[in-house]
């Protein structure tokens, strides 16, 4: 990731007087042009980096400059380590491990014990319970495609089960809701699309085909927001039985529960209405009941009947 690379370059320059741009490019597996763009970003952040020409030249920090507490404090370095360790639970590589080692190396010995305590007090584990070993090869391939602007191809199965062959320009890898997505420009659809990695198969990148990055449309830049308009979501009301309060709290939080006179609990929430919502409600089993809207209640009842019919059939021996 770019932030990881920038921090690694800064820490490397703190420990070495000069580094060749070609060496940095090989270390981080990017082009020399990308390294020079990174240097511009670091300079823009207020850390003066100078390029020296000639046989013994290279890239280095301005003479006499040191990264002091006005740039990164020990607590801020601890926050960076915590973030990197958390990211590594779902997306880890050797670069991150080397960066963690470098950050630890610049921490003053007198602060080492306190630093260890702070970096081990919080861990956000993004990995699923069943692991993500099957996803790691896809992540590595797509990261290479994103970094080097390489065309990617794969077979994709959408939420409706439709199978298509896609050729895309990969832009961003996104981890959202414990699921990995790729934001890419689809050459078949001629627009930006979001692809779930679990729905991809036969992924390959074209090492001989480089694309020029397009400017992301404004609506595609904030990937953390819900892409649905208010008119596209359905407000639902669920009733949880009294003895199922713990499940309701787990999904919606204590503050989201409203007590009813009969001892049950109600939750009001707005969701995009699609197949995911139906599966989510059915996954709550007998603990929850849809009160509103009526049409959603009918859909869940119909699907529950279909499930019941499957299990009412005698298993042939």
UniProtKB/TrEMBL annotation:
Native organism: Paenibacillus allorhizoplanae
Domain of life: Bacteria
Keywords: Transcription, Transcription regulation
Residue ranges of the TM segments: none
Domain HTH deoR-type residue range list: 2-57
tRNA processing listed as a keyword: no
SUPFAM superfamilies (UniProt xref): Winged helix' DNA-binding domain (SSF46785)
InterPro entries assigned to the protein according to its UniProt record, in alphabetical order: CBASS_pafABC_assoc_protein, DeoR_HTH, HTH_11, PafC-like, WCX_dom, WH-like_DNA-bd_sf, WH_DNA-bd_sf, WYL_dom
Name of this protein: HTH deoR-type domain-containing protein
Gene3D superfamilies: Winged helix-like DNA-binding domain superfamily/Winged helix DNA-binding domain
């Amino acid at each position: 990731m770019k932030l990881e690379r920038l921090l690694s370059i800064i820490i490397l320059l703190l420990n070495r007087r000069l580094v060749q741009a070609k060496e940095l490019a090989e270390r981080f597996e990017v082009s020399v042009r990308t390294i020079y763009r990174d240097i511009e970003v670091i300079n823009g952040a207020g850390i003066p980096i100078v390029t020296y020409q000639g046989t013994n030249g290279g890239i280095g920090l301005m003479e006499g400059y040191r990264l002091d507490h006005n740039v990164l404090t020990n607590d801020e370095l601890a926050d960076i380590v915590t973030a990197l360790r958390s990211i590594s639970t779902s997306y880890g590589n050797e670069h991150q491990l080397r960066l963690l080692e470098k950050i630890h190396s610049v921490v003053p010995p007198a602060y080492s014990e306190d630093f260890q305590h702070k970096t081990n007090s919080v861990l956000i584990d993004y990995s699923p319970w069943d692991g993500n070993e099957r996803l790691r090869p896809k992540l590595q391939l797509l990261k290479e495609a994103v970094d080097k602007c390489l065309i990617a191809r794969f077979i994709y199965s959408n939420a409706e089960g439709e199978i298509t062959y896609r050729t895309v320009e990969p832009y961003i890898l996104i981890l959202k809701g414990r699921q990995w997505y790729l934001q890419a420009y689809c050459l078949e659809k001629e627009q930006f699309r979001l692809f779930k990695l679990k729905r991809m198969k036969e992924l390959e990148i074209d090492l001989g085909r480089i694309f020029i990055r397009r400017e992301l449309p404004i609506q595609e830049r904030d990937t953390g927001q819900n892409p649905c308009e208010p008119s596209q979501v359905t407000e639902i009301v669920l009733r949880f039985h009294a003895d199922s309060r713990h499940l309701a709290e787990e999904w919606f939080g204590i503050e989201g529960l409203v007590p009813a006179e009969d001892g049950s609990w109600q939750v009001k929430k707005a969701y995009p209405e699609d197949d995911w919502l139906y599966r989510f409600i059915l996954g709550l089993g007998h603990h929850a009941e849809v009160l509103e809207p009526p049409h959603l209640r009918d859909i869940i009842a119909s699907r529950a009947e279909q499930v019941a019919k499957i299990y009412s059939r005698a298993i042939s021996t």
